[in-house]
């Protein structure tokens, strides 16, 4: 059974079950109510005392009181049960929906990861076999070596993302905290990026002498994930802008692109683990949905905040701000 049909079946079962419970409660209420009214009528008919006797009005008041008390009890109990059932139903609905979504995202992740791991290995193998078998001229050799290197680096960053996010989640990551030059670290990552994507225009504005206390591996991963995303999600002929500067007593890193941007509705979702915008069947870009989740975790681990805004005239602007 596919995930979608399982979800439909569970939804139908849930609504049928909930309607049954509510219908049973309503039926219970009306049967008690009519029982109470029947008792009331019966007691009144059997009230034989002379209507003028002082005992008559006392007995009548007692019958009326009993009817009112019982009705109030049924309404109170019924209302409480109904409220509890509705609270429980909302709770179950939300947690089951969350679980199904997480399950679906994990399936997508496994599919994506299988593909992401196989592609660079196949490409590297094919390139190395070609180099081994044929005598190629220097230009062709260099091209194959460059492609292989790129694929290896992609594999490396993919594996880093997976390993580090699972270590951070499991609190087993041994962070190496040190005072370091953030300016030099960002410069370093952008140079590697520019070397890897030679055709992409990268406009940098990196202020000198910005220091940070943190883990160099995690911070490099943060910057490179943002750059990789800007590269992946924006047209090849559009530039990517990176800036690092001090602003209002904080250090602000911004990576801007001229891609499709991110809608307001999706902004809170994209930092969730395994979350990828759109549909797995129609999506063209490769990815695992771990990059921004990690970026947020790393930023927070360094007392920073990450946010996404519109870039002008178009695209997205991922900004990470750290205490100076
Ligand atoms: P991945 O890129 O592996 O799918 P991420 O966690 O890095 O996972 O990103 C989550 C989602 O956010 C992506 O699937 C993509 O839809 C969206 N996204 C991330 N960066 C950008 C960007 N610069 N422009 C447009 N969409 C983006």
Concise structural overview:
The chain has 324 residues and is of the alpha+beta class. It has helices spanning 3-45, 54-133, 138-169, 182-196, 216-233, 291-301, and strands at 178-181, 202-206, 211-214, 240-247, 250-256, 305-310, 316-323.
**Fraction in helix:** 55-70%
How many strand units? 7
CATH architecture of the largest domain: 2-Layer Sandwich
Helix-and-strand structural type:
alpha+beta
Overview features:
324 residues, alpha+beta, Heat Shock Protein 90, 2 domains, five-stranded mixed beta sheet, 6 helices, 61% helix, binds adenosine-5'-diphosphate
Structure in words:
The chain has 324 residues and is α+β, with helices and mostly antiparallel strands. The chain has two domains: 3-106; 178-323, Heat Shock Protein 90 (2-Layer Sandwich), CATH 3.30.565.10. It has six helices and seven strands, in the order αααβαββαββαββ. Strands 2-4-5-7-6 form a five-stranded mixed beta sheet. Strands 1-3 form a two-stranded antiparallel sheet. It binds adenosine-5'-diphosphate.
């Amino acid at each position: 059974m596919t995930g979608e049909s399982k979800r439909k079946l569970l939804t139908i079962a849930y609504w049928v079950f909930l309607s049954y419970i509510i219908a049973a409660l309503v039926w219970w209420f009306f049967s008690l109510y009519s029982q109470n009214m029947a008792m009331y009528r019966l007691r009144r008919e059997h009230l034989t005392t002379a209507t003028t006797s002082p005992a008559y009005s006392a007995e009548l008041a007692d019958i009326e009181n009993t009817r009112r008390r019982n009705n109030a009890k049924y309404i109170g109990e019924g209302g409480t049960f109904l409220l509890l059932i509705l609270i429980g139903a909302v709770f179950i609905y939300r947690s089951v929906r969350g679980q199904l979504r997480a399950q679906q995202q994990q399936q997508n992740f496994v599919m994506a990861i299988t593909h992401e791991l196989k592609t660079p290995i196949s490409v590297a193998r094919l390139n190395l076999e070609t180099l081994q078998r044929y005598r190629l001229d220097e230009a062709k050799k260099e091209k194959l070596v460059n492609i292989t290197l790129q694929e290896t680096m992609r594999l490396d960053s993919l594996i880093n993302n997976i390993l580090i996010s699972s270590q951070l989640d499991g609190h087993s990551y041994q962070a190496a905290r040190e005072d370091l030059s953030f300016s030099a670290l960002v410069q370093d990552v952008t140079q590697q990026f520019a070397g890897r994507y030679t055709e992409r225009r990268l406009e940098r504005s990196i202020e000198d002498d910005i220091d940070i206390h943190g883990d160099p591996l995690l911070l490099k991963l943060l910057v490179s994930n943002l750059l990789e995303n800007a590269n992946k999600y924006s047209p090849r002929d559009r530039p990517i802008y990176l800036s690092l500067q001090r602003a209002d007593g904080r250090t602000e890193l911004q990576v801007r692109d001229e891609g499709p941007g991110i809608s307001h509705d999706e902004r809170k979702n994209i930092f969730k683990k395994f979350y990828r915008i759109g549909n797995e069947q129609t999506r063209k870009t490769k990815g695992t949905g771990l990059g921004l989740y990690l970026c947020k975790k790393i930023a927070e681990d360094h007392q920073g905040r990450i946010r996404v805004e519109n870039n002008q005239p178009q695209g997205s602007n991922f900004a990470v701000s750290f205490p100076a």
